Amino acid sequence: MASTSTAVPPKAKRKLDNGKKKPKTLKDEFGEKLDIKPVIPKPADEYDYDSSDEEDLRNTIGNIPIKWYDDEEHIGYDKFGEKIIKPAKKGEIETFLEKMEDPDYWRKVFDKQTGTDVRLTDEQIEKIHNIASGKYPTIGYNPYEPFLDIYSSQKEIHPIDNRPEPKARFIPSKDEMRMVSRMVHAIRMGWAKGPKAKKEEPKAYDLWAAEDALDNVTKSQLSRMRVHMPAPKVALPTHAESYNPPEEYLFDDDERKKWEETEKEDRVINFMPSKYDALRKVPQYDKFITERFERCLDLYLAPRQRKMRIHADPTDLLPDLPNPNDLRPFPTTLAFYMRGHTGQVRSISVEPERGELLASGGEDGTVRIWMMATGRCIKTFKMDGEVTSIAFCPVADRTLLAVAYEGKYVAILNTGCGDRLHVQQTESLLAETPTESQEDGAVVTWRKSKDKLVLKMPNEVRQVTWHAKGDYFASVCIDDIAKSVYVHQMSKAKSQCPFQKRKGHVQAVAFHPTQARLFVATKIHVREYDLARCVLVKKLITGCKHISSMATDANGENLFLGGLDRRFCWMDLQMGNKPWKKLKHHTAAIRSIAYHKKYPLLATVSDDGTAMVYYARIYSDFSKDNELYPVKRLRAHERTSNDLCMLHTTWHPTQPWLITAGADGTIAIFTY
After folding, report:
1. Are 401 and 361 in contact (CB under 8 A)?
2. Where are the domains of the chain?
3. Which of 560, 533, 565, 563 is nearest to 618 (CA)?
4. Coil/strand/helix, residue 579
5. CA dist 386 to 256, 390, 488, Å?
6. Coil, strand, or helix at residue 289?
7. Regarding the domain delimited by 329-434+443-671, which CATH topology (the fold level of the hierarchy) does it fall under?
8. Helix/strand/coil for 155
9. Which of 161, 395, 433, 650 has the fewest C-beta atoms lying within 10 Å of its C-beta?
10. 613 vs 409: CA distance, rounded Å
């Protein structure tokens, strides 16, 4: 039979040759020798595979927080030092489509180091299931394999070793005898001393340690240490408990009799004050033991309640305010002053359509017309007394100006400024006003005087305001009387008082912009009246102690109030009769309030010398809440000796410009 040989690696062959070992020979079943050489396995190369983590990971940034790369374009570096660019973020639509189309979407997880999704293998998913169900993570691990009993559990009758005990175990040790004798001799001589007593150190408890780390401490003791409730303190003694109190603390006969007749539980003090000349004459307190016993009962039996305090950062309680730059435009800069009045500027009004003209009335008895673009005074009207209120007619075709001045007079002027056609139409309108057809004994008398109409009122006028259509205007008297509000119709030269009973001291009135309604503000309430049906529609509870000014929005659905108690209220008429917002940003009385017709801007002026500008967004959608944010505080005027500063304010009709009138005789214009 031919001999066969197996292939041997060259490296193994060299080792065999060097060792000079002959191959073993075996005989087959026929007795012939077979030359078989052993096969030596080739050793594995240690560089063929490296299972280190650094080789497996594509991102080599190490164990650092991934959030450090949030503001970078890359997420780390690969093993060659190149930047790993962040993958594009998937949108919600792409994520939804991938979830619907990819059947393996459920087995993908997000890798923070690479910023990509990694697909889990079946083995990894099975390990996750084992961990979630409380099993061993290793797949196929059997914790209940057969136990190999190495030592027999059967009891044997005979011992394995039956040798007799050695003699040395029965004879006392001579070495131990010598050691004991030395110790006895040292004790007799006084050389040896007993063990020192250990000093007991005060035991301190770590309140922040885990419960398992505290030795010999029960849960009740631990809870008492952590939730410590101090005992109530004893009240401090008063002057009546002194051994030598003042005379006013001593009882007379009537007080002593009253104290004795009062029940023990109803007495203000449980003892009778007494007076001694010296402390050594004070006898022992007979109720000392009783009071100490009651004190112990209070400590032992009195229930206590622990008040849990919420430890919160005060900044977290503040609302999130938007960036003021996102709320622009609003006035931020003082553009210029208008100077010309010699006293207080009590009222200002802007031309309603284009805002080219500004009218102002002051304490010096003059009404001045200013150019808004240049700040130059182009016309001056001399009145017979101090001007208290002025208002431009809201109709753009009429150059009318209503002026209320001291002496119980209201004048309707033709400014004579602006478009010539409008000026001529206004002159003809004033000429056609039937002032001669007045009833005898009328409370309000109408008369013509040169280029104006003059109304003589029964009392001094505080405010004058126009209706949106320009034919009606209302006036408010200063006195607290029943007939303090009058509504006037210029086309018929008639006046009427809508109220016959006093409902409070009227401070301001305002017409509804679109409906035949009138808002009447007293010191603490605002009433809304329907002028067509002559009925009360709604009574508003403002929460202010003294209302000073009132303004409405363009639709008449919101009412803004300012008070002398430094409060500003926003009344949403569709939400109820109580304020939607109440703010207190001024340190002095609020004198005037104004809302812009075009921009969501609101302004309040006060005697503290500041004007607060608010971003006041009104939504017509009922699902959205109105927005109110303070955006700017403006300063322009100086305080006078009587603590007055800003008296009136108004907005430009088309631009976000704020105009303020001051008690120092100046008019300031703020632009953005």
Report:
1. no
2. 66-133, 329-434+443-671
3. 560
4. coil
5. 70, 12, 22
6. helix
7. Methylamine Dehydrogenase; Chain H (2.130.10)
8. coil
9. 161
10. 34
